[in-house]
Amino acid sequence: MNFFKKKTVRTVTPLATSEIKNENGSNAVSFSDRTSHHIVEVPLSTHRTSTFNSNVHQRCCSKESLKEQALLMTTIASVIIGVGIGLGLRGLKCETEQYINGCRLTKEDIAYIEFPGTIFINILKLLILPLIVSSIISSLAQLDAQSSGKMGLRALVYYFGTTIIAAIVGIILVLTIQPGKRGGAKEAFKAESKSAEGRTIDTILDLIRNLFPDNIVQAAFQTLGTKLTVNKTIGIDANNATYNRTIYDAKLEKRDGINVLGLLLFCILFGIIISRLKEKATILKQFFEAMLEVVMQLVRIAMLFSPIGIFFLIVSKILTMDSLNDFVGSLGLYMATVLAGLFIHGFIILPLILFIVTRMNVFKYIRGMSQALVTAFGTASSSATLPVTYRCVEEKNRIDPRVSRFVLPLGATVNMDGTALYEAVAAIYIAQLNHVPLTAAKVIVTTFTSTLASIGAASIPQAGLVTLVLVLNALGLPPEEVRTIFAVDWLLDRFRTAINVFGDSIGCAVVNHLSRKELDALDNKTMSDDDTNIHNSKSTTALLPLNNTNTPRSNHATPLIYDNPSFSNQVETTIENDDSMGQTTF
Q1: What is the pLDDT of residues 330-374, one digit of tens each?
Q2: pTM for the whole thing?
Q3: Is the pLDDT of residue 543 over 80?
Q4: CATH number assigned to the domain covering 107-524
Q5: What is the pLDDT, as a whole number, of residue 341?
Q6: For the chain, which residues make up each domain, given as ranges?
Q7: Mean pLDDT of 103-111
Q8: DSSP readout, 28-97?
Q9: Better-scored residue on pLDDT, 438 or 424
Q10: DSSP character for 106?
Q11: Calpha distance 16→37 (Å, rounded)
């Protein structure tokens, strides 16, 4: 027990001191009655140890912890109850806009049911912009350029590595199960389904364009995208032979939505410059730190509404399904393949990476992320879930905020493990339906194309369905084949969004562990700078007798309380005179 009670007192250039031994064997410094001009400090590590031990005992049964558990349980219950009620109300759904044949729910009624869920998603999206800006800038402002560079490199290596692994897992499963060949005949296209056109080069150029927006204010609500128009005509060659000719007309257009890539780059550079300016940019640093605190308080308020919002979202989405027959046959086997891949990657590969690198308790970490995973499933948007992910990572899994505030926004943009797996499986499944032979080269191309397409996918609902066109083009399949899986994409989108969010959080823990030396060095440097500022200050600190009644009360410093009985509660003060003598110390 002496190990926990041991106190180490650090002194700075004592003038008149002597060392004595405590009963527990620790050294202490005793002051003589002579005048002394030095400061006695208690190391921060001692305070951290005692504070951490007391917090561990209070955390499990605290009122705040019980509220968090109640919120998590009600959110999970809202998903389960929403699925049950949604399935039960499908019998009352009207095929037309009229109440005939005993139906009670038209499309307008279903829109009313969805309304509370839409409000909940809008509240979360409202917080995305201030959250990304304040979190990245406040995080990088506390780091130096070298530390932030290493941290960003580790995050990108992890994100690209796990995304490629996810695509490989999906390809292995779809080639093994072969849902396109074993599930029966190919489904007919639906007239109301949407098709899309796209080229890989356009996606790459759009990513680069959005990295460098011409107006940072406009980047907060608009992005640049290529609108591709395809014209198919018949051409005549030099030998007067006819051939089919495809003409692509690419035009840039501005689309509604946050340009996350442009804001990320701007905020990263802005935060690094603030860290280099140090004292000159202290006001800016404090502003963004205060802004982040305000946004996180708003997130806590918004999460109180999450059970209701997620419940109505689930009910309305089940009611809008065309038919439950979409979940059987070839399409049902395809769904099972995607879900099996997401389970393997999310609950076997990612936890294994977490344990190997950090040696953390995997089950405890997953439990800490429960609220974020349920929210991701309900909203189907990793950007909308970002405020909740912050809370789970920092407050429940104790990740350094300097890491989470930089890594999580980056991961929400470029890390799409679930989307990469889904697109790889979907592309090969469609190829199997159309009896297109797959060579080893095409499989490799599918791996890297699905990885690139997942990075280009916006973190919004069903964005992967649009970027899937790129993978189909790589396999030589027409983009209209996206319609084949359109009916079940809404459900798979929720599962892959949860895996995307979980992958971001695992990356946060991995980068936090690998960056611990840089973070400790920054902490030590900060403490050293504080010590230097104290000792180089113009004011002189002295220990005054307790019976001094001539000292102005406003100049008294806060008394220091010491655990060692050799210290008395002396009062430290400085009196500044206005005359030519400058400062007088008693």
Answers
A1: 788 899 999 999 999 999 999 999 999 999 999 999 999 999 999
A2: 0.70
A3: no
A4: 1.10.3860.10
A5: 95
A6: 107-524
A7: 87
A8: EEEE-SS-----EE--HHHHHHHHHHHHHHHHTTSHHHHHHHHHHHHHHHHHHHHHHHHHHHGGGB-SSS
A9: 424
A10: -
A11: 9
